[in-house]
Amino acid sequence: MKCFALIALLITANVSCKKNVKGETQLYPAPDPVGTYAKGADVSWITEMEAAGKKFYNNAGEQQDIFKILKDKGMNTIRLRVWVNPSSGYCNTADVLAKAKRAQAANMRLLIDFHYSDSWADPGQQNKPAAWANQDFATLKTSVYNHTVEVLTVLKNNKIVPEWVQVGNETNNGMLWNDGKASVNMKNFADLVLSGYNGVKAVDPATKVVVHISNGYDNGLFRWIFDGLKNNGAKWDVIGMSMYPSASDWAAKNTQCLTNMNDMISRYGSEIMICELGMPVSDAAACRDFIKDLMAKNKSLPNNKGLGIFYWEPQSYNSWKDYKLGAFDDSGKPTVAMDAFLP
To answer: Which residues form the signal peptide (predicted)?
Structure first.
């Protein structure tokens, strides 16, 4: 009877019982249903941080699994980057699967972020994977498709299907340079995006495809990229944005971002997601206010077109990898910036 009573209690409380990474039993709130607003974080560094001995604590100072801490702070979604053949092994398919399993065990939803590179892809670098470096363009398109299908199939075979998939990361000037450099050949960039899109839909047609550009306040940049993609036959479901303002200019940039988000909806009919955001950890209170304001603006978009908002690597305390835009303090506890995600 005690067992049945416990099960009934868990159902009534809308929680589930899961094993954490240490094999300890923990209670997690049930996942938010598909269609609810996504509040999340990219924690792709987590396995590397844990291997280096980093530990994480709730605000009471109790050591906990990072996924539970984030969940208890109101987050319901995890974003994970994918690299093709990284030298360290981190962010390869096996590492992504391990982290995705932990996100699923914590009843969190999933956004997968393909960089189509062996390392960082961003506005300043979009390097081809070494294995693709000498491929002609037709083969390159096939490689994008095959890599997308292979990774998502590994996840699906483990009963993990992401709600969203990015085809490229901060592709302000295209990806897989120089073949897919937008300022050189927008048609090539569009063809690569379409290859990624088709790969995603081949594994699960319900998964939404995101094209992600940084500087969400820069309407001219977004019109150039998405006009170019549309005019050259690319497809996408969601427009993704990054926002990294300062404590002094976040209000102005959020206002510009709202104008841009509304323009993207009226121009292309797309849904909008803030795939990355951050602010110096030393400005935690300003960061909290920035996030709450941007979240409200994203939620205000017509027809529920605002899908969600993601902090980029909030757990990177002690300036991990010299990154200073996290949202945990030097003792490994969340700063007040994380309170922005609370209900």
So the answer is: none
